[in-house]
Amino acid sequence: MTTKRVYILGAGASAPSGVPVVKGFFNAIEDSKHSGAKHFQTFMRGYQALRGVHAKGRLDTQNIEEVLGAFELAQLCEEQLVNDVDPKELVDAAKRVIGDVIAERSKIRVEYRTTSNTVGPSASKIEPPLGYRSLTKTKNASFITFNQDLMLEYALWLDKVRFHHAGLQDADSVPIIKLHGSLNWERDEKSKAVMVHDPNKVFASQRREWFDEPLPGNDTLIHEKTLPTIAHTPLIVPPSWAKYAHYLPISAVWKAAVAALRAAQEIYVIGYSLPESDFFFRHLFAIGTLSDTRIRKFLLIDPNAGQTQARYRRLLGAELEHVFESRASSFGGMKEADFE
Q1: Residues near 197 by Cβ (< 8 Å), separated by ≥ 6?
Q2: To 10 degrees, the CA torsion angle through 80, 81, 86, 88?
Q3: Helix runs in 77-136, H state only
Q4: For residues 188 and 100, what is the distance between their CA atoms, to the nearest angstrom?
Q5: Which DSSP string do the residues of 261-288 spell out, in sequence order?
Q6: Beta bridge mates, 269
Q7: What is the distance between the alpha carbons of residues 135 and 337, in angstroms, rounded to a whole number?
Q8: C-alpha closest to that of 229 among 98, 323, 140, 124
Q9: Would you state the pLDDT for residue 142?
Q10: Residue 228 vs residues 104, 252, 301: alpha-carbon distances, Å
């Protein structure tokens, strides 16, 4: 019988592929090739308005999640942070900015080589995203992720592993459970239902484009490519006050996470630092592990595991203290054998 394993993925899992973490996200916004777009300008006007809050209150305006949460609270309270910008427009602009930055920073390495059929080198191989390539062969695995990027999906697609977004799609394939939304999710304004845009079609189209693209020169080249910019406002859930009531349409996703945790015999946490402010995950984990299933292993993988493990020890009950391990490793350098 194959052991049921759950991977819990935080921002540190996608960082090796170029996806910015909270610290440094605003640098990525300022450096974005889309910075002149209308939604970027709208976002920056709202951001500048928030920076004035320090006169009477405190808000971490260098934390993109706090900024988005503040925009959403202003929308709920019908408060205009910018005189001529509707609060909903400001929230949508922020989500599009986040989506654009994540997409353009998600690096895919493509190898180009000279062949007899091309003027210059043509694409011969696409390398799976760093780190994620080591997980695609795990049997009987579920993935719970806080990340909105599509690096995990891309790695599975490259290895021809079928997957679905649990809670929103039903399929006999690898479940991906995205707690904070996803770049390929969109909320229908009328029905409020969540639409899932098939990432497989995007990946296939991008692959054809890369492989049809000859380059000048005769040597083997490695080029970093990015996924295309999304054309919709992505459904993104900030880890803030609004999570419980404001995002009821994805409650089925959170139910899927609880179900996965209840069945888990092994739990691997990669790149998630368990911030003290994330009460949601603490509650989710507590409810999800209320089962008769015995967890045989709980492994924390994080370059700063020495600092992070204290928070996890406070999270885990007495039964899991004996199976808890931590490994101070960079996910980007890990191999398939590390997860056997």
Answers
A1: 184, 185, 186, 232
A2: -100
A3: 87-105
A4: 20
A5: HHH-SEEEEES----TT-HHHHHHHHHH
A6: 8, 300
A7: 10
A8: 98
A9: 96
A10: 7, 28, 30
Phi, psi torsion values for 22, nearest 5 degrees? -55, -50
Q: Parallel, antiparallel, or unpaired: how do β-strands 122-127 and 107-113 relate?
A: antiparallel
Q: Which two tokens stand for residue 247?
A: 């995002």
Query: The tokens 């942070």 sit on which residue?
Result: 81
Distance CA 270, CA 272 (A): 6
Exposed, middle or buried by CB within 10 Å (0-12, 13-18, 19+), for 216?
A: exposed
Q: In what helix (H) or strand (E) does residue 106 lie, and over which residues does it extend?
A: none
At residue 119, the pLDDT reads 47
Q: Which of 113, 114, 122 is nearest to 214 (CA)?
A: 122
- Give the Cα separation of 25 and 329 in Å (integer): 23
| Single-letter code of the amino acid located at 113 | R
Q: Are 127 and 109 in contact (CB under 8 A)?
A: yes
In Å, the largest CA–CA distance within the chain is: 68
Q: Do 73 and 241 meet the contact criterion of CB atoms below 8 Å apart?
A: yes
Give yes or no for a contact between 217 and 112, defined as CB atoms under 8 angstroms apart. no
140 φψ region: left (φ > 0), alpha (ψ -120 to 50), beta (else): left
Look at the block and give the residue holding tokens 């920056």.
44
Instruction: Return averaged pLDDT per consecutive 10 residues of the chain, 340 residues in all.
Output: 86 91 91 92 93 75 89 89 92 95 88 56 67 88 95 92 92 92 91 88 78 58 74 85 65 93 95 84 90 92 86 89 90 84
Pairing of strands 324-327, 221-226: unpaired
Residues 6+ apart with CB under 8 A from 289: 261, 262, 264, 295, 317
Phi and psi for 88 in degrees, rounded to 5? -65, -40
Question: What three-state secondary structure class fits 88?
Answer: helix
Q: What is the per-residue pLDDT for 332? A: 85
C-alpha to C-alpha distance for 135 and 332, rounded to whole angstroms: 11
3-state DSSP helix/strand/coil percent for the chain, to nearest 5?
Answer: 40, 20, 40
Structural contact between residues 141 and 7, judged by C-beta atoms closer than 8 angstroms: yes
